[in-house]
Amino acid sequence: MKLYDIAGHLVPVVFQAALLAAALLVAGGVAVRKKLSDESGVLPDEGITLRNIVEVMTEQLFGMAESTMGEHARRYFPVCAAIFFFILVANLMGLVPLVGGATSDVNTAAAWAIISFVVYNFVGIRTHGAKYIYQFMGPSLWEPEIGGQKYHVRMLTPVFLPLEVVLHLARMLTLTVRLVANMFADHTVVAVWVGIVPFAVPAIFMGLGTLVAFLQAFVFSLLTMIYIGSALEEAH
Fold first, then answer.
1. Pairwise CA distance, residues 204 & 212, whole Å
2. Between 20 and 30 A from 143 (CA), which of 95, 151, 228, 235?
3. Could you give the CA distance from residue 55 to residue 66 in angstroms, rounded to a whole number?
């Protein structure tokens, strides 16, 4: 019996798994906030602790955010960090026997993919306004100056516009499929080996599964950063 069977069919399993992951993140955030409120809390823990590991991961993520989003990194980093840590926790939950994670379900992966899609397009519209559409219209091949005003003539727009729209929509599909396929396969392999050989051997696959869990969370978050960084750039 899995942990989520306790609630029966009242709440879908994927909702229970997602709520549990969110609850763990909230609890961790509250604990960190409480510790930082003390004067001693600003100092790092001695040795290798969960707090130190999380701080190192956060610093590395922020470094990548600065390299992809530039001066806007601090504003949009919280969204990317939330995506990373939720997916990471959900992925790791999938490796725990009798628990399971939400990221093996297409609904969870698709929800985060849609959030990523909405966020980076919102950033683009907020930054450039109506001119954000230029990113979908192809390069400017002729820039005549009329009356002191420079105009960008994008003659390849009929070709680029439909293609770019399809490619941007496909980003949601690729984010979803990549996460679901990898985590479903990883969790299935671990579950099979736990059932066949309960001792020693599954530990090897759980170690590999932990690596995959980190990589998939990292890739999803990094791609979101790249999409936001691209949306921030001026079209040429």
1. 13
2. 228
3. 16
- Distance between CA 197 and CA 53 in Å, rounded? 31
With beta carbons less than 8 A apart as the criterion, state whether 152 and 134 touch. Answer: yes
- For the record, the structure tokens of 155 come out as 């003659």
pTM: 0.83
The DSSP bridge pattern shows strands 145-146 and 149-150 to be antiparallel
With a cut of 70, say whether residue 184 has pLDDT above it. yes
Closest residue by Cα to residue 138 from 122, 121, 120, 158: 158
Judge contact between 87 and 24, C-beta under 8 A: no
Residue with token string 């729209």: 165
User: CA-CA distance, 24 to 3, in Å (whole number)?
Assistant: 15
Specify whether the CB–CB gap between 64 and 222 falls below 8 A. Answer: yes
Q: Structural domain boundaries of the chain?
A: 3-128+158-231
pLDDT digits (tens, 9 = 90+) for 102-134: 888 889 999 999 999 999 999 999 998 888 888
